[in-house]
Amino acid sequence: MTIHSVIIQKLLSTNAQLGRRVAADHFKIYTYGMRNSMAIIDSDKTLICLRNAANFMSHLARDKNARFLFVNTNPLYDEIIEQMTKKIGIYSPRDNIMWKMGGFLTNSFSPKKFRSRNKKVCFGPIQPPDCVVVMDTERKSSVILEAARLQVPIVALVDSNMPYEYFKRITYPVPASDSVQFVYLFCNIITKTFLLEQKKMRALKGDVKEELALSKTESREEVKQIEKSENEGDIGAAMDELLLVPYQNLLPAFDEIKQLLDKLVVVKFNGALGTALGFNGPKSAIEVQNGLTSLDLIVNQIEALNCKYECRIPLILLNTARTHDDTLKVLGKYTESTIDILPFHLGQQLQQESVDKQSSEDKLYPSEDAAGLISLMKSGTLDVLLSQGKEYAHVVSSDSTATLLDPKILNHLAQNRIEYCMEVTPTTSTYMRNNMLTQRQGRFQLSQITQDPSKHETEKFKFIDTRNLWMNLKAIRRLVDTDVSNLCTPKFFEQPIGLIVPQSQLVPLNATSNLLLLQSDMYSFAEGTLVRNTARANPVNPSIDLGPEFEKVSEFLSRFKSIPSTVGLDSLKVTGDVWFGAGVTLKGRVSIVAKPGMRLEIPDGVVLENKEVNDPADI
After folding, report:
1. What three-state secondary structure class fits 427?
2. What phi, psi does 542 have (nearest 5°)?
3. Taking the CA of residue 434 as centre, how many other CA atoms within 13 Å lie in the half-sphere pointing to its CB?
């Protein structure tokens, strides 16, 4: 008998599969069917949800300062909960009593007094928990609403008749019957998870000297970064924080997708020229793959969503003087398209040194993009969009090729009344040093987020800003009316968040090295969406460094008979007069350096794995 079978039998012995006589529509994804007029919950899906919840709590438990709140109103569970909390060392009689009063979380910023016939209760403010675990969701819906309002992750047992209004706010639902046996099993899993993490933490304390040295180094780096951000005016104030939410934590949108997408408008910055890549025209007109440009990709993606959900998402292009005329020519091929494409010519006051010097574009961000947004909104476009029922704008950068118009993101913003969402992705060093950091929700300093994805910068930061934003149009109206100068920073918005997306969604078109990645078998495109090859096991994209011989797009394309396979590639360095044949495969770490005056040709069909090539004899 397999381990999986044993676990499923254990679940069945607790009657976890027995639901109620009514199964809500949103819960049917967890049901196996109906029997004797009773919903039967799929035990395999219960097990998957249990694992997800346990993994999340284990990641959170690694932080010794993490705060958990266990909510229970059923007296049958009291002894189980008390034994569990005492065993894992987080038992608090004070919290166990006070959360039962309404507004315990959302109104906890000032002291309160309650009077009853027999006694007077007075308590002061508390810190919000990092996780709320609800055992009896049917009785404590108010706690779910309060926790969701504070954006506190919720782990909860859910039954088949739970209303969607509360179900959609639960971050990690565990579909199962709330029998005493299953609650005992659930608490036992939590206890073992905590004890295992505590044991790991004690084991890590063995090498105290190394830990202290590392912490001192990180502290010095953090101080230097804060000083740098204060002096240079980095992405935000040095001590400002932003709540970062992993993409995998978002709940799927169910029946409201059409209504959500009808509230969306896509705004794409289109002011970058391709001169740095040897291309005379807008960067959005450079061919990315199979004859498609980055502009084609966003148009195809919007067109696919409009067709699938029968919605109407418009596209606004923010052009500069250098890109406007060329963009109008490119738009001629979309005359038969069903989507509304609105080119907008930014004012001449925005056409300064950043237009002439492409290298300075990133340094001026976000103030210049913010100026473009303000120019757009003050032109009357904002009033028109609001009158059409639009509520959210997805702002896409000029370099972006991997933007994703995901209803899950839009649903999360709408349900939690979030006005600003910045998409970020972990740096390579963050993936290597602490992959778990990217899988848990938490607050991070804005000074830990950079907009420069170069290797030098990624060693100093934890996250990279993809320069793709989600913004509430009503909030923009409020800020425009108050003459706020920078709409691209989170500090002016209510409940701003950052969304941690995979590194595969950061492939900016700013060098031919990225073009090599996009045109290889690493990526493909489906309905305008960038799809990563599932054969790639490493979540981090390979590092590619091409010499000046490959700098221009025309020179780059002429040196490849066909683009090599990069699925198994970790890093690639190519300098000198190098020419690639057809069907070349690159794996591991590959370095190809041609000696001065030598023409080095890579033969057709060759496989280079962990090789250093300096002359034909090395192949």
Report:
1. coil
2. -65, 150
3. 9
Over residues 409-436, the pLDDT tens digits come to 999 999 889 999 999 988 876 665 655 5
Which amino acid is present at 444?
Answer: F
For the chain, what is the mean pLDDT? Answer: 79
Residues 547-578: tens digit of each pLDDT: 999 999 999 999 999 999 999 999 999 999 99
Report the predicted TM-score, pTM, of the whole model to 2 decimal places: 0.62
Q: How many whole angstroms separate alpha carbon 532 and alpha carbon 470? A: 23
Contacts of 345 (CB under 8 A, 6+ apart): 319, 320, 321, 324
Q: What residue has token string 């118009």?
A: 405
Identify any residues that bridge with 572 across adjacent strands, giving them in sequence order. 544, 590
Which pair of structure tokens corresponds to residue 436? 């778990």
CA geometry: angle 356, 358, 363, nearest 5 deg:
115
Q: CA 273, CA 322: separation in Å to the nearest integer?
A: 8
Q: Which residue type is seen at 259? A: Q
Nearest of 35, 256, 246 to residue 164 by alpha carbon:
256
CA 266 from centroid of its chain's CA atoms: 18
Q: Which residues neighbour 107 within 8 Å (Cβ) at sequence distance 6 or greater?
A: none
Max CA distance (Å), the chain: 96
Sign for the CA dihedral angle at 602, 608, 613, 615 comes to negative
